[in-house]
């Protein structure tokens, strides 16, 4: 806190900013890289929520999540970055693509991808973005992250803090993952009393093994982590 | 690095996800937008943890630990959510959340009795297109 306080005081004083602390007009290389990757990430996220082709939305989501992993690397949080690549790009997007295929999403353009309230949604989102950006910029105008020195999120640091201070939540999380696995199997299992729908039996037989295999891959990834 | 960069990017990503949740009609696209919102929160947590771990003398790295927990919970959430979407699609023949109006109040244009043939035709259409 003391460093941030001094830096904040330096930056708040307009006379000493020119020499003392960095400014907006002379961004460092890390800041430029962060800005460029951030633009790519934001653009991919916008395309994800606006495109009319469902599979393309999932693929643009890969770009957005990968860009966020690069942002974590730029913030020296290496372990989080690789966990992001493993879990999100590796398993969550694959699960989403499985879901799109199992629900027989149309390949190509679907005209009804957006619902009728998209203008209300756009208004709400733009208002929320304006309010949040204004508040955040106003609050952290004079705050700087010191990225020099040892990395704040290397595997050694993260593992030490995780297994020294956060062991009990970690174990509780494994119970939650087990519950989620059992719940996903129970939900995607075909009920026995459903035999009246013999017309769909073949498609359900096709659905069930894939739906059962998905939580297993996820738990394997979690276990490897 | 200026702390405003990751904070502003996180706010923009969150609002993008908010737009997606409100405007999308397919349930799986809504889940994708929820993932975007969760990732925005993760970026915020990581940025503030890096800032505080350099500024403070002693830190628990609570931001990064919470980010890891959020990622694991998001993985569990997407598994359960997709299982629910698949069950709904199997029963109704659609994953269109505008048509799932069984608990809607007010103007009963599509009640349970008029709704059943509609979903039936939707299921037939899904079968026909597949």
TrEMBL record, chain A:
It is a multi-pass membrane protein. InterPro entries: NADH_UbQ/plastoQ_OxRdtase_su6 (IPR001457), Nuo/plastoQ_OxRdtase_6_NuoJ (IPR042106). It catalyses: a quinone + NADH + 5 H(+)(in) = a quinol + NAD(+) + 4 H(+)(out). The keyword Cell membrane applies. Residues 193-225 are annotated as: Disordered. Its EC number is 7.1.1.-. Its main location: membrane. It comes from the Bacteria. It holds the Pfam family Oxidored_q3. Keywords: Cell membrane, Membrane, NAD, Quinone, Transmembrane, Transmembrane helix. The chain crosses the membrane at residues 30-50, 57-75, 81-107, 119-137, 166-187. Belongs to the complex I subunit 6 family. NDH-1 shuttles electrons from NADH, via FMN and iron-sulfur (Fe-S) centers, to quinones in the respiratory chain. Couples the redox reaction to proton translocation (for every two electrons transferred, four hydrogen ions are translocated across the cytoplasmic membrane), and thus conserves the redox energy in a proton gradient. This is NADH-quinone oxidoreductase subunit J. It comes from Streptomyces viridiviolaceus. The lineage of its organism: Bacteria, Bacillati, Actinomycetota, Actinomycetes, Kitasatosporales.
From TrEMBL, chain B:
GO terms for molecular function: NADH dehydrogenase (quinone) (non-electrogenic) activity. It is found in: Cell membrane; Membrane. Keywords: Cell membrane, Membrane, NAD, Oxidoreductase, Quinone, Translocase, Transmembrane, Transmembrane helix, Transport. It is an enzyme of class 7 (translocase). Coiled coil: none annotated. It is a multi-pass membrane protein. Belongs to the complex I subunit 4L family. NDH-1 is composed of 14 different subunits. Subunits NuoA, H, J, K, L, M, N constitute the membrane sector of the complex. NDH-1 shuttles electrons from NADH, via FMN and iron-sulfur (Fe-S) centers, to quinones in the respiratory chain. The immediate electron acceptor for the enzyme in this species is believed to be a menaquinone. Couples the redox reaction to proton translocation (for every two electrons transferred, four hydrogen ions are translocated across the cytoplasmic membrane), and thus conserves the redox energy in a proton gradient. This is NADH-quinone oxidoreductase subunit K. It comes from Streptomyces viridiviolaceus.
